[in-house]
Amino acid sequence: MRRVWGLLVRPAVLMLAVCIPVAGCSTACPAIGWVNSITVELAGAVSRVDTVQLCADGACSELRPEPGTATPRIVVTTPLDARASPTPEAQPTMAPFNAERIDADTWRFTVSMSSPDHVTAKALSATGEVLAEKEADLDWKRVGGSAQCGGPLEASPVELTIPNG
Fold first, then answer.
1. b/e sequence 79-97, b meaning 16+ C-beta within 10 Å
2. Which of 35, 115, 101 is nearest to 63 (CA)?
3. Best label site of 49, 84, 99, 152, fewest CB within 10 Å?
4. Are 123 and 42 in contact (CB under 8 A)?
5. Among 155, 91, 162, 86, which Cα is nearest to 130's?
6. Domain segments of the chain as ranges
7. Residue 77 host element (H or E)
8. What are the phi and psi torsion angles at 151 (to 5°)?
9. Rounded CA gap, 155 and 3, in Å?
């Protein structure tokens, strides 16, 4: 009987010793998406600014007010090369940047699961005049999720100084 008991118990103990640590190491990631954010901070003559435009990866945002409200506003990317040649092949599938004017000197852009390395921020007047423009390299920091599964990132702020008119 001892021999039979030993033949049954030893493999079960060995199997538990192998399976428990392996099961603890597996990572089950939730099937969700997230948005990354870029903040543009204005300084100087901010009262002259009507909107802020953000350009990244060959595309610039165009401000389109949301019906019935002033904020949050929706910004849609338009690739630079599509403007030069309006052929059907050049027209992109629009992937929106969402923009929100936080206060007089802060704009936040959200980008769906994308993290561009380099952006250009532009402050525009109500007539479309470029009041200030700055190129910036972004430094991204994780603000949620995990390294294994991904999650939201936040870029270092882009500071844009508006000169007096």
1. beebeeeeeeeeeeeeeeb
2. 101
3. 84
4. yes
5. 162
6. 35-162
7. strand 73-79
8. 155, 180
9. 65
CA distances from 98 to 17, 32, 38, 63 (A): 50, 19, 10, 10
Q: pTM (2 decimals)?
A: 0.66
DSSP string, 40-74: EEEEESGGG-SEEEEEETTEEEEEEPPTT-SSSEE
Q: Are 7 and 126 in contact (CB under 8 A)?
A: no
Element (H, E) at 121: strand 118-124
Contact between 90 and 20 under an 8 Å Cβ cutoff? The reply is: no
pLDDT digits (tens, 9 = 90+) for 82-126: 444 444 454 443 434 677 889 989 999 888 778 889 999 999 998
